[in-house]
Amino acid sequence: MIIWREGVVAERGTSWTGVQELTVTIDNAHVRALAYSGLVGDPQVGDRVLVTTAALERGLGTGGYGFVVALPERLPADPQPAPGHLVKARYTPLQTLVLGVDEQESEHHDLLREADDLAGLPVVVADLHSALPAIVAGIRTVRPDARVVYVMTDGGALPVWFSRAVAGLREAGWLAASVTVGQAFGGDVEAVSLHSGLLAARLVLAADVVVVTQGPGNLGTGTRWGFSGVAAGDAVNAIATLGGRPVASLRVSEADPRERHRGVSHHSLTAYGRVALAAADVVVPALEGEIGELVRTQARALGDRHTLVSVAVDGLQDALRASPVRLSTMGRDLDADVTPFLAAAAAGVHAANLA
Q: Which of 28, 32, 187, 257 is most buried, by the most CB atoms less than 10 A from its CB?
């Protein structure tokens, strides 16, 4: 279902890499909207715009935005001829053509043609995109000079541009580069598959540590298998297949009101316990009190297949508070629920110690 609206740009707001925030007047009401400049151009005040609002009107997790689909009276100019024949967001009205790092027109094609080995590269896997800045913060407590590369899968947002976290981490120098794989697009490097994206992170971008998560916008249905984070288990398999060192970051919460996400989320237990067939280092944060005991007890269910690694969290709150981007997960910040961020940062610490 698509809900179409026509409006006029009333105000230009904040912008970040690839994105312009707008206030659009629709039916005498003001609506926040986003325009991806690489897809639709650069709307100015007074421009007539076509906007889709279905997720906004249903109150779904788009951050409260409509999305600009077109500037019908001021279409962007045709791009200059360029190499690249990978189509992403395929067979949708906004499918986009990109140059894949692994395709024949790429200068890196020969390098990746027979590439098959990550050579022990540590790769942290997490369910939620919100874990990314916390993982990087943990890495930097051990290796502040590490080249950290983010590989974004296509379980959530497809344009990496939607992520303010990625833009802010890049601007602060905390991330060296991003790779978008599958149907996701907009990274510094584009790749067809997670496997080729991981190889590009090592061979093209010279990563010391890689982080793999879906983009913003986790999808879940409250069922055992109906959540997009199930792909975290597939990521563990891909890393191991290529000779990398998978590091599994647990999704942990002390404040989530839903029982299935208390302590270690069932998302982590399912993805790592049922989907991941290869062994990973599962990082268990050494939390104190009842939540710490609960997490340790739940994590033992993963010990038959994986290696459980206890990592101290002393000092990690300071590292998290130094993040150049806002930390928030499921609507809760660091003060509302520190445990998910400590768990993610602990995974980053372990990965950095392997690098």
A: 187
* 353-125-329 Cα angle (round to 5): 105
CB 7 within 8 A of CB 24: yes
CA 261/CA 307 separation, integer angstroms: 22
Q: Work out whether the CA dihedral 247, 144, 337, 213 comes out positive or negative.
A: negative
> Same structural domain for residues 136 and 212?
yes
Within a domain: 55: yes
Q: Which amino acid is at 200?
A: A
DSSP H or E run through 148: strand 148-153
Asked if 266 and 318 sit in the same domain, the reply is: yes
Cα–Cα distance measured from residue 318 to residue 334, given in angstroms and rounded to the nearest whole number: 11
Give me the chain's average pLDDT, please. Answer: 94
Give the residue among 141, 139, 154 at the shortest CA–CA distance from 209. 139
| Separation CA 56–CA 153 (nearest Å) | 23
Range with the poorest average pLDDT among 80-94, 197-211, 305-319: 80-94
**Cβ contact 237:305 at 8 Å:** no
Instruction: Dig out the tokens for 349 from the structure.
Output: 């610490």
Greater confidence, 217 or 188? 188
In a domain, 78, yes or no: no
β-pairing, 48-52 vs 209-214, is unpaired
The model's pTM = 0.95
Query: How far is the C-alpha of 190 from the C-alpha of 201, rounded, in Å?
Result: 10
Mean pLDDT for the stretch of residues 65-93: 92
State the CATH number of the domain containing residue 310.
3.40.50
Is residue 93 in a domain? no
Tell whether 166 and 266 lie within a shared domain: yes
Q: Quote the number of domains for the chain.
A: 2
**Which residue range forms the structural domain that includes residue 261?**
109-354
> What size, in residues, is the chain?
355
> pLDDT band at residue 79, thresholds of 50, 70 and 90?
confident
